[in-house]
Design goal:
15 helices, 8-stranded mixed β-sheet, about 50% helix, alpha/beta, Rossmann fold, single chain, 3 domains, about 375 residues
Length: about 375
């Protein structure tokens, strides 16, 4: 047997077929898994796009609803800044939407419109407005309560102490009765050149810190104005947690300077292209025109003011008996509400405050002919 070969057949062919079948099935399974992954990714992309589209249309609706009250339909404009390559577009954020969850600092040089913008914003919020201003003239803040004129820092300090007690009271009401109990109790506190108040008023630091942390939920809104963009000037050095509760709205040259720090030349060019362009933190924002800003602060004719203010001391039931008097009063109150706010009319003209606010709101709607 030494010179003969022995045949030993191997079952390679069957094994190859088995592995080939396994590989084909594995390929099918992997293909289906990749298809599922692609379907899932496309679904997520579609969902993200739908959410973005929904937010965009919500902002569009918000702006569109304000057109009849913010200057009429003549001010409709479409603005986009197309850059040199024609691809990029600056898309400003909506100011009122973005500041809803934070307090606000407005930073700009003298004459940049800080006070006018702050007054316009206060009317958007509504409610009582208190201004801390040590240098302003009687005409600086039309129709608003101003504390501290002629460098009366003692009055500002005392008023800030009262604000702190008021804030505590608001927090207690909210804890006992919920957010609905604070409806109609909004208050806007505007501090002109706040860094100076930090130096001159002993209550300013606590006033700032407590309102920064608790103010929004207690319906107390801060608008702080300054020419300085340094954290130390605001008394916030080393207090990053408090600073995080504020949005910074930079105007004019200070906005351009900040955009330069971001190394965004396109944003710098956009800010320089129009005086209504500003920065909210690091985002571009389109401000109302000067005419729109001053429209809500423009005083009404004397006759209208006299009719509306006099009505507060009269018996409204007696007035409503005369359809002619009621119509005149309704028009006067409606016009006053456009210039001030419905909350101002209800609380300061009709005299309905506190728990009587809702009754006052119903009376106001009745007088102006608006259905509830």
């Amino acid at each position: 047997m030494g010179g003969k070969w022995v045949a030993m057949p191997l079952k390679i062919t069957s094994k190859l077929l088995d592995y080939g079948l396994w590989f084909a099935c594995r390929l099918v399974i992997v293909t289906l898994r990749v298809a599922i992954w692609m379907w899932k990714s496309l679904s997520r992309l579609s969902l993200d796009l739908s959410v973005m589209a929904g937010k965009s249309y919500d902002k569009l609706i918000t702006v569109y609803d304000k057109l009849p009250y913010d200057g009429g339909f003549d001010d409709i404009s479409v603005y986009n800044l197309r850059l040199h390559d024609g691809a990029s577009v600056i898309s400003p954020v909506d100011l009122l939407t973005e500041i809803q969850s934070k307090q606000l600092m407005i930073i700009g040089a003298t004459g940049s419109g800080k006070s006018t913008l702050a007054q316009w914003l206060s009317y958007q919020v509504g409610g009582q407005v208190i201004v801390y201003e040590c240098e302003g003239s009687p005409d600086s803040w039309r129709g608003l309560q101003v504390v501290g004129q002629a460098e009366d820092f003692d009055s500002i300090n005392q008023s800030m102490a009262a604000d702190l007690k008021d804030l505590t009271h608001q927090i207690e009401i909210r804890a006992e009765r919920g957010d609905s109990a604070l409806a109609g109790s909004d208050r806007v506190l505007i501090a002109e050149e706040f860094p100076e108040l930090v130096q001159k008023c002993s209550n300013a630091s606590e006033w700032l810190e407590r309102h920064a942390r608790r103010g929004r939920k207690a319906r107390r809104f801060l608008i702080l104005l300054s020419q300085y963009d340094q954290v130390a000037a605001w008394g916030l050095e080393g207090k990053g947690g408090i600073a995080a509760n504020f949005s910074k709205l930079r105007l004019g040259k200070l906005a351009v300077k900040h955009a330069g720090k971001l190394k965004d030349d396109q944003l710098v060019d956009w800010l320089k292209s129009d005086s209504t362009h500003a920065l909210l933190d690091d985002d571009p924002v389109q401000l109302p025109t000067y005419r729109e800003l001053t429209q809500v602060t423009r005083q009404l004719p004397i006759s209208t003011w006299e009719i509306a203010e006099t009505a507060a001391g009269n018996d409204l039931n007696r007035i409503s008996e005369s359809s002619e008097d009621s119509e005149i009063l309704g028009k006067a109150l409606a016009e006053l509400a456009q210039t001030k706010s419905p909350t101002y009319v209800i609380k300061n003209v009709l005299g309905y405050t506190g728990s009587r606010y809702q009754a006052g709101k119903a009376e106001f709607q009745k007088l102006i002919g608006e259905k509830e």
